[in-house]
Predict the 3D structure of the following.
Amino acid sequence: MFGQERLNAHNIVKYGLTKEFFERFRTLKYNGIELPPTMMRSFHMFIMPYVNRHMTNRSYVSAMRRKHRLATMRNVQSALFRKPKVTTNLGKVSSRTTILLPAKLVSFALEKLLRYKVVIIVSDANDRKALFGKRLPSNFKIYNYSQAIRRVQVPVKIRDNLKKYISRYMKLNRRHPVFGKSRFGSWFYRQSLSSIKANRVLDHLIRRYPIGIVIDHIEISNPGTTLVLLANKYNLPFINVPQLLIADRSLIPARASHYVVWGKSYKKWMTRRGIAPGKIIIGGNIRFKSGMRKVKMSRPAFLKQYRIPPNHIVVTYTSQPFDRRVNATVLRWIRQTSRLPIPVIFIIKPHPEDSFNYSRYIRENQKIRLLPGNNGLNNVLQNTDLVMTISSNTAIEAAMFKKGIIVLQPTIPYDYDHHNNDFNAHLVHAAAGMVAYNHGDLARHLKSYCVSKQSRIRTAVRSNAFLKQTLNTSVNPSVVLLKVVRKLLKRKRLYRGR
């Protein structure tokens, strides 16, 4: 559902090089942790020019496929899974009951973890935003990861040994098209220092506070990457709680001990990638559930605020930060459709990272509204009739509000990070709603929706069926996650009695 099973040329080259990077430099360790896996996200950005140049070379791609036996994402998970051996089993220390989680999950902590010791890790602006205005109890501690990274120093002896290691191994790999270049050596040294700093900081955190359980929403970037490896080293439970739709690039390789995922489709997708079904619990989505409670604006107030006639269908387009040509195409479809004699008002809700200048093109159009960034998404979803998007989470949120979905599928240029496989067609594969590949499709769907009760019923049925497969709405996600935490803590108490 969230990305194709078989590897295309882009992924064969990218993951083939990643496998080589992990294997050739596997002896570079710090504190028992292999460093290359902690750099994976940065490494992928470093090799981007090389991948883009060579992914169209069929003979090279075929050679990489044969060499590394990489044909599916399951193969990638197996090849890159590398994790440290358990050296000290802190998981059996019954006094280690403190829960470590990112500030992005602070609402869950305040709702369900008030009786526990909690350390809240702050690593970026979103974490700081999540904490704004929150009053924390005395048993909650804040750990500023970014500040700790700035303060930590890598001893001179370690720096010198690192330089010697990189110099020696670059000579051994001097004929490699990536690892033999001086640019790689400079990058590798800088990233190794960053990885060592993260290791020192997070290892100290785990030991300073009696961390017993780690909860995070991502493993592919720090602090999550290093935390999941340290959790494996110390045999500590690491619970991955995805909050957004994630593609393979944000998950693989998956090393968490537990996954609390949204619904059936998510579990099937992860199982096909080689993640043991026993590690995966279906528990809904905390962020979506809390968002449903924040709706404040009634339909009449919404229509009045945006000057929408009460007899009109409201269609909301939720954009994404694609190449500007993509959003320009969608806007052209909307403008063309708005000229039709049908009672439809379009609302454009730009993604926070979408820099396209919509206002320039819609000033004179009476049937298109551009929402300001401060208008809450859930207020919009509650008061719209249809939601249009390419591949956004908002399709799921729309289905939760019992709204119909139109899946837009304009031509999307190749992009190394945002469009390198069929991830952006996942809503099509999931049969989430009506699909528009061009302006004509969009116009036809909206005409039918406006005049046909059967069309509106079919759209609602599709949306509901999609929701049932994608998200378990019959459970309280916070309660499910709390049950996992309690079960793990109970296991620790059992160790105490042995």
